[in-house]
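Feature request disguised as a bug: please show the residue count (217) next to Response regulator transcription factor in the output. Example input:
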Amino acid sequence: MRVLVVEDEQVLADTIAVGLRRESMAVDVVYDGDSALEHAGVNDYDVVILDRDLPGVHGDDVARALVEQSYNGRILMLTASGQLEDKVEGLSLGADDYMAKPFAFAELVARVRALARRAAPPLPPVLKRNGIVLDPANHTVERDGRDIPLTPKEFAVLEVLMRANGTVVSAEGLLEKAWDENADPFTNVVRVTVMTLRKKLGEPPIVHTVPGAGYRL
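Example output, currently without the count:
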């Protein structure tokens, strides 16, 4: 899952990003509305966490622009304006959800995951395929009842492959969904992560390489 955090309070923005990355999400961070529109124009985000009171382009105008572009990602407004009329206004601009500061981080994670499920074809909250059970909310993976400890990146790659429902995912697709914009596309980080994931999942292998195309579960 890939998330864009748009928040002008840099400490808060970076803290949110660190927390979401621990939940195996790929997170980009910007601190103003102009940068938000630039990033959304280049990258496909599952969820945009958007502050309203932003420098440059106001958060409301960012939301309007994304809605007018029929952006595929969902918008979660996260702002200090928590009165009922503020929530109504934010949702009327096209936001899919609205949270007021201060907030519980566990609730933010739950809402982001719920929105991401709505941004893609419907899938159950717990993913099951080929004996693998992946629970994004509890960050657990089992194979045939055996716990599989994974790193955040291995977990993210497995989640992308399971959500692909048997179709091939290219290395570029995995890089787009499981890493942020700081990842070097010319490294072998995807291949190495898939290799360690395949080893941890054990025998028989269930992550298959499709030559010249990518990977499939």
